[in-house]
Structure formats: C-alpha cells, structure tokens
Amino acid sequence: MQSPAIQGYPTQCPVCSSHYNHSEETEVIFENRGESVIHVSCQKCKSFFLFSLRMNPMGLAGIGMLTDLNREEAIFFLNKRRRISNEEILSVYVELKNEKVGVNNLFS
Length: 108
Ligand SMILES: [Zn+2]
Hints:
Layout: H1 22-25, E1 26-32, E2 35-41, E3 48-56, E4 59-67, H2 71-80, H3 86-98
Antiparallel strand pairs: 1-2, 2-3, 3-4
Bound molecules: zinc ion (ZN).
C-alpha cells in the first residue's frame, strides 16, 4: 500500500531536479510533541532540504526549505532552539527604537 502524498514533501531536488532516493538520503532528525523535522540530502548536487511536519487539528501540515546546514549542523541547531518570549521581542524593539540610526522608520 502506498502512503498518501504530503503536500510540499520533496520527491525531487529543487536545485538539480534529480529524484531523491529517500531510503538513503532522508532522515528524521527531530521529533517532539507532534512535530517531525526531516533532513534530505541530494547525492547528486549535495544540496540540503529541511521539511517540517506538524500535526494540528486540521491534519498534517508540512513546510520545507532549502538549507545550507548538513545533517549534523541541522541536528545541532534544532536541539539548541528555543521559543523567543514576547518580552525578548519587546526589548529588541525598545533597543532599536532608542538607537539613533534611523531604525525607527522600520516600525512606523
Ligand atoms: Zn540536487
């Protein structure tokens, strides 16, 4: 039985258009609370692709992007990431707004 296609999941390399051999080039590198991140390596052009799958009330949602992170680097950054709090965003906004370099225009 063939599994259903997931919208946006790459079947071929977006750089060189060669078809991925998922058994050799794909690895789930992160899983947490209904989210999975898959790292895909193209054996032909050596580009990398990250695909995030998340279960939500509407079903499975996926989003992907090209990356320059190899598998080990992607694993490192995914395990280091944390959520940015509203207070941190506000403090960056206040810092930039107080600077006299014209960044106030970014927020108006
Ligand atoms: Zn490629």
